[in-house]
Design brief:
Elements (H helix, E strand, L loop, with lengths): L12 H4 L8 E4 L9 H10 L4 E4 L11 H6 L2 E6 L6 H9 L3 E4 L2 H12 L4 E4 L14 E3 L5 E3 L6 E4 L2 E7 L3 E12 L4 E2 L8 H6 L1 E12 L18 E4 L16
Parallel strand pairs: 1-2, 1-10, 2-3, 3-4, 10-12, 12-13
Antiparallel strand pairs: 5-9, 6-7, 8-9, 10-11
Length: 254
């Protein structure tokens, strides 16, 4: 311990995930299969928890990433902005095994940013007078394909002649994020697509665990280059053997 700072490095994934329990809400960084905390995603399955509420952009894809959680049956609810080709989520929705709340992508990011800033809710014009505000989402699909609604209409107010829908902040019990580089105090630097949901998720949970490609000593990261200050990070470790996954490979002949 040095002053108010402390070494947050943990020796294993199991140690990092020790506080995770059944029924928790967990925020998971990444966009598709890019910027995923791969080791932590695998570690959650190995921990054997269940009944999780998962908050992520699209809950995995092509049977990889967070799709492994759906296949393992450890998720009961998903808050996301895109389903796309995630066959595991389509099946879970269709069977009624998982409740899905669809949220516009920018709204999803802002709901977590708001939580990190201590803002309980905010108004946005996105989704006003659509299924998002009228009680059509989230939805649960019955076995026959019909839709069972289980949400309430959201409040709408007019500001300067434009209607806005009230969206609640999303705060997690846990956040697992992926960064390019981090130091022993938890200061993080992201690269490229990992800059998507990871920074705001890191601020919006009671416990944030950072998985980094490169772990450096304190002082080796320029303070001006820090994206997530260490005050938001509770545990950090260095991952290894990352895959550079391509979701849709498109080529052309010469």
């Amino acid at each position: 311990m040095i002053g108010r700072h402390k070494d947050k490095v943990v020796g294993s994934i199991a140690e990092a995930l020790a506080p995770l329990k059944d029924g928790m809400t967990i925020l998971v960084g990444g966009f598709g299969l890019s910027g995923n905390p791969e080791a932590l995603i695998k570690g959650v399955v190995e921990r054997g928890v269940k009944d999780l509420t998962l908050v992520s952009n699209n809950a995995g894809n092509l049977g990889k990433g967070l799709a492994t959680w759906l296949e393992a049956g450890i998720v009961s609810r998903v808050i996301c902005s895109y389903i796309g080709g995630n066959e595991a989520l389509h099946k879970a929705m269709g069977s009624g095994a998982v409740k899905v709340e669809m949220t516009p992508q920018g709204t999803l990011a802002e709901r977590m940013r708001a939580a990190g800033a201590g803002i309980p809710a905010f108004y946005t014009p996105t989704g006003a007078h659509t299924a998002i505000s009228e009680g059509g989402l989230p939805v649960l699909y019955n076995a026959d394909g019909s839709v069972k609604k289980f949400s309430e209409k959201k409040e709408i107010r007019s500001f300067n002649g434009r209607d806005y829908v009230l969206e609640p902040a999303i705060r997690g019990d846990f956040a697992i994020v992926k960064a390019w580089k981090g130091d022993r105090y938890g200061n993080l630097v992201y690269r490229h697509t990992a800059m998507n949901f990871n920074p705001m998720m890191a601020t919006a949970a009671a416990i944030t665990i950072a998985e980094v490609e490169e772990l450096v000593d304190v002082g080796q990261i320029d303070p001006d280059h820090v994206h997530t200050p260490g005050i938001f990070v509770h545990r950090i470790f260095q991952g290894e053997r990352y895959e550079k996954r391509i979701e849709r490979r498109t080529t052309r002949s010469a």
